[in-house]
Each structure stands twice: as C-alpha cells, then as structure tokens.
Amino acid sequence: MVSVHLVQNPEAALKSCNGEPYENRNHGLGHVAKALAGGFLRHGHEVMLGTRAPSKLAEWATKNPKASISTFAKAAGFGDVLVLAVKGSAAAEALHAADTENLAGKLVIDVTNPIADAPPSDGVLQFFTNLDESLMERLQGEFEDVRFVKAFNSVGNACMVNPQFEGGKPTMFICGNDEAAKEVVRGILDQFGWETVDMGKATAARAIEPLCMLWCIPGFLRNDWVHVFKLLT
Ligand SMILES: NC(=O)c1ccc[n+]([C@@H]2O[C@H](COP(=O)([O-])OP(=O)(O)OC[C@H]3O[C@@H](n4cnc5c(N)ncnc54)[C@H](OP(=O)(O)O)[C@@H]3O)[C@@H](O)[C@H]2O)c1
Questions:
Q1: Each residue of 152-199: pLDDT tens digit?
Q2: Which of 38, 49, 114, 184 has the CA that lies 20 to 30 A from 79?
Q3: Per-residue pLDDT, 16
Q4: pTM score, two decimals?
C-alpha cells in the first residue's frame, strides 16, 4: 500500500517508459507500489509505504530516502490518497489490516486486478471474478466509507509514470462512485503524463479490470510488455 500527502509543486522532469521488462514473473515484491511511490516522490509528494515485510523494501528505501516504510495501518493513517497495490485476492485482507477507522472517507486508488492463482491460457489471464462483477465493486460493498477509484490497473508498472510513446499521451480509464475523488485522481494522472477517460461508476470496473488481460497478452505470447492503451475519438 502506498500512502501519499499530495503536495502542490512544479512538475519534475519527464521520464520515459524506458523499455524495462514487465516484472510479472516475480510476484510479492511490490512492483506497482514501488513504481507509483517513486512517481509520487518524483512529483514532490510525501510518501509512506505500508507493508507486512519492511525488509523486502530495504533496498528501495535506501534509494528513496524521502519515503518512509511502515505497517498498512500506519500508512493508511498517513496520507490523503492511498494506493491499493496488493495481490487481488489479498485486497480485502490488506484493507482490513489497514484498519477501517484509518480508511473512513479516504480516497483509495485501486490498482488491483482479480487475477486467479492459475496460469494464463494461450496468454490470457484467468480472473476469479466474472463479467457481471468486479473486484472493486466487491471492495466498495465491503468498505462502504472508502472512496475507491480504479486506475493504473491496465498498464505495466514500468509504464505507469510519465510514459513516453510516439503515439502521444496514453489513456488511463478510471471509474468510481465519488466524483470529487475522481477529480483528484485526474490531477494525479495529469502529473503522471496520462489522459484520463472517466468511465463512470464503480460498475465500470467490470470493463476496466479485464483490460489487464488484454494488456498482458502480448507479454505472455511475445515477451512484449511495453505498450499502453489510447482512446481515439
Ligand atoms: N505488476 C504490474 O505491472 C501490475 C500492473 C497493473 C496492475 N497490477 C495489479 O496491482 C497489484 C499489485 O501488483 P504487483 O505486481 O506489485 O504485485 P506483487 O508484487 O505480487 O504483490 C504486491 C503486494 O501484495 C501484498 N500482499 C500479498 N498477499 C497479501 C496479503 N495476504 N495481505 C496483505 N498484503 C498482501 C504484498 O505486500 P507485502 O508482502 O509487502 O506486505 C506484496 O508486496 C495486483 O493486484 C496486480 O494485479 C500489477
């Protein structure tokens, strides 16, 4: 979990997607949390990472001395904006560990995908949800006071912050029930170099979460993990 105090300050220099491989094969290292935390730091925000195992983040913490590392509960209490970047099947458990009191009214950017513990089939990931439900709706139903916004789930961690593509600014599809929360996320996405397309209420996570399956197919079939979605109108 990443917990952020948003700070108003000038933009930092843009960094490219830089062709780093998508690190999907090494689970449990918090690739997304580290990538997004790095993005928030680069843009001048204050960051605390919540984890069950601080030792796993020791090297990252040495390279990022401005960030602090703590428990899920302390991190949830720290920031105005939380990023839920844990294994999809552990999302509810991580939120319970953060403590519902710390979460009340908080904006949680939900990066999770409901990926099943089963190998991809012909490059297509398997989900533990179906097309008539989504993980974010389940979480919203269980944690009613939280203002969830789905974002960053349909791109690999190496391309999450200020991606540079010849085709121009990529599109991040977002959704959530709270309009003010989505405006904050739109501002973050502006800073992180994305064009935001708001797909409406939490129900739209039924469509946005499976974009992860589509995004991963070129990776599993051709080891191509550097691409982004763009909506042309
Ligand atoms: N990897 C990507 O590029 C990418 C892109 C878009 C979306 N996503 C989604 O973003 C999420 C995070 O992806 P990731 O690749 O960073 O995952 P990851 O490295 O496999 O795991 C992220 C963290 O999940 C936490 N976790 C696992 N089981 C837990 C439990 N029972 N309770 C609490 N925390 C638990 C662990 O935190 P600690 O051990 O530190 O406590 C772990 O560091 C996933 O839902 C993934 O589908 C990933």
A1: 999 999 999 999 999 999 999 999 999 999 999 999 999 999 999 999
A2: 114
A3: 38
A4: 0.93
* Strands, sheet with 68-70, edge to edge from the N-terminal-most edge strand: 68-70, 46-50, 2-5, 81-84, 107-110, 147-150
The answer to whether the CB of 84 is under 6 A from ligand 1 is: no
**Pocket perturbation via mutation, ligand 1, pick of 1, 20, 82, 87 by most ligand atoms within 8 A of CB:** 87
C-beta 3 within 6 A of ligand 1: no
User: Looking at this protein, which amino acid is placed at residue 36?
Assistant: L
Residue 52 Cα to ligand 1 midpoint, Å, equals 12
Average pLDDT for 89-99: 97
Q: Token pair for residue 179?
A: 């309009």
Stretch 10-38: mean pLDDT:
61
Delineate the domains of the chain, giving CATH numbers in brackets: 2-222 (3.40.50.720)
